[in-house]
Amino acid sequence: MLLSISKSFTFLNSKCEHAHLMKRNPRKVTWTVLYRRKHKKGQEEEATKKRTRRTQKFQRAIVGASLTDILAKRNQRPEVRKAQREQAIRHHIHATDEGKNQKPKGKAFYIGLAFVELGSQKKRDRKHISSKYH
């Protein structure tokens, strides 16, 4: 069979030719080789499934904490860890309360929750910021 775009096709029989002319998808026609390959028909189950390797979990030291420190902290009793956590939270709250009372040095103004220093920016940027927020 020869098409106008000069591609030639050779078919086994007229059944294949008619299926091609009707633009049937060979992957959906049950008797074709492509269908049988796609749906794994006629393959013998000789090859067993490849075994996948499971990843092993292990602990490693990180910067600032050796492995013994990490394991010691993990094996602490929950009450001790809870007390340490509460103490750290109290210390953090106390430190931030002291920081809020301090005023920033130099020219600055308050936007939302943070002070913006004007001395570190160029003059044209200062005009833009001050007009935007005042």
Automatic annotation (TrEMBL):
GO terms for biological process: cytoplasmic translation. InterPro entries: L24e/L24_sf, Ribosomal_eL24, Ribosomal_eL24-rel_N. It comes from the Eukaryota. Residues 6-46 form the Large ribosomal subunit protein eL24-related N-terminal domain. GO terms for molecular function: mRNA binding; structural constituent of ribosome. The keyword Zinc does not apply. It holds the Pfam family Ribosomal_L24e. Coiled coil: none annotated. GO terms for cellular component: cytosolic large ribosomal subunit. Keywords: Ribonucleoprotein, Ribosomal protein. Belongs to the eukaryotic ribosomal protein eL24 family. This is Large ribosomal subunit protein eL24. It comes from Exocentrus adspersus.
